Amino acid sequence: MEYMTKAEWGRRNEEQRGQETMDMQEEIIAKVQEIPPLSTSAAELVTLMGNPDHELQKTVRIVECDAALTARVLQVVNSAGFGLMEPTTSIARAVSYLGEKMVLGIALDACTGSTLRRPLEGYEGKADTLWEHNLRTAIASREIAKFAREDLSGDIAFTGGLLHDIGKAIVSEFLSGFAGDIVSKIDAGDATDYVSAEHEMLGTDHSIVGYEVARRWKLASPLPEIIRFHHIPSEAEKGVRALAYAVHLGDIIAMMGGIGTGSDDMMYHLDAGFSEFIQISQREFEKIMLEVEVEFSRTRSSIFGKEDIPS
Amino acid sequence: MGVLTLGVGGLGAARDPGTVIRTHALGSCVAVLLLDPKTRSVGMAHIALPDSKINDRKAQETPGYFADTGIPALVREMSRLGCNGNGKGMIVKLVGGAKIMDPNNTFNIGKRNVLAIKKVLWAHGMGVVAEDVGGNISRTVSLDVNTGRVVISSAGRNNWSI
What we know:
The complex is a heterodimer of chains A (about 300) and B (about 160).
Chain A: H1 6-11, H2 14-34, H3 40-49, H4 56-64, H5 67-77, H6 91-98, H7 100-116, H8 129-145, H9 154-163, H10 168-175, H11 179-187, H12 194-202, H13 206-216, H14 223-229, H15 238-256, H16 282-304
Chain B: E1 2-6, E2 11-14, E3 19-23, E4 30-36, E5 41-47, H1 56-61, H2 67-79, E6 91-96, H3 109-123, E7 128-133, E8 140-144, E9 150-153, E10 160-161
Parallel strand pairs in B: 1-3, 6-7
Antiparallel strand pairs in B: 2-5, 3-8, 4-5, 4-6, 8-9, 9-10
C-alpha cells in the first residue's frame, strides 16, 4: 500500500476515508501475523510467572535449557550494573541475584528486541523508547500492585507492564508522519485523547492491536486483557480489572517520570475508578515514582548497557 | 563549550560562551532555569518531586531531585561562577510540570512541583518572570549561555521559546 501524504489525507472525502481505514485495518492485521513468535523459553517464563506458587528452580531449568538465554543472563549479571565482587557462572545464582522478573525481561528482549527496540516513527520516539517505557511501566505496575485492595500478583502486573504497549510496535508504522496532526487534533479538542485519535485514524488502536499480538503469542489470560484495557481498565471484566488498573497507573507513572514513547506522552486519561481497586495516597504515589526511577536506572544499565545521564 | 545534559535530579551552571544546558522529557518534573545578567551565567535544575522529606538520603545524594533542596543547591552552584549567593537579581524561568488528562487533578505532581518551587523561590526573594508549565505535554528544554535563549521542544510540535 502507498501511504498518503498529510495533504492527501485532508482531501479525502468521508467515503474514501472509510475505505482507506478498512484497508489499513487489514494491513495492520497482516502485520500482527508477521510479528516474530516468542521463543520457547520466553513463553514458558511468561506462563510460569502467571502461577504465583511456582518454584524458583523451574525458572533456573528454563534458562539452562536455552544456551543463548544462559549466555545473556550471565552477561547481564556479571555487568558493572550489578557490581558482583566475583563473576558467576552459576545460573541458579544468577537468577537469584537478578530476580525472576529481570530474567523474564532478558528473555523477552532476546526474542522481541528487534521489534521493541526499533524507533517508533509514528510517535516520533527514538530507538529503545518502547522497551524502556515498557520496562519502567513493569516496575511501576509491580509496585502499584502492592497497594491493591485485594491480593494481587506483582509478577503478573510486571509482565503485563512489560508487554502493555507492544501494539505500538505495529501501529507506529501506520501513524508515521501524522504525530503533529494527532497532537494538534487533541490540543484543539477534536479528539479526546491519543487512543481515540488513533482509533479515528486507523479504525483500531495500539491497545487492540497489542491484544491481537498477545493472542498470536498465545499468552494466557489475563495478559491479553491487561494489554487491551490498560487505558480503560473500568471496561475490563471484573476478574482482571484490578490488574488492568495496576498497569494503567504504572503506565502513568512511567510517563510522568519522562519515560514515555514520544508524541503521545501524557495524552491519556486517568481512569478515575482506580480507587475502588488500588488504595494509594499522593505521598505513596510520589514514593513509588522515586523507587521506580532508582530500580529502572539500575536495570536499564544492566540490560541495555546504558549509563544514566549524571544527576 | 558543548552541551551539558542533565538527568532527573541533575543541576548545573555554566558561563562559558557556546555552552548549552539541556534536559530531556520533563513529564511532571519541572526545570528551574536561572539567568544572571550580571555575570552572564546560566543554571538549570531538573526537579522531580516537591518535598525532600520523602527520602532524606536521596536529598543528600541528589539535592536537585526535590524543590526544597534543589533551588538552594542551584543558587550555590551559580555562586561558584561569581553570581550573588542569595540569588538576588537573577531571572527565573520554569518549564515542565505536565499532567495526565484528569479533570480531578489526582496525582497532579506537576502542579505540586510548580507550587513548591515558587514557594522556595519566594522565600529567597526570587520571582518567576516566565513559565511554560502544565498541560499534557512532555517537554525537553535547552538554555544557551550565549543568548540566554530558552528553547522548548516536544514530539509532534514545533520548537518554541519563552
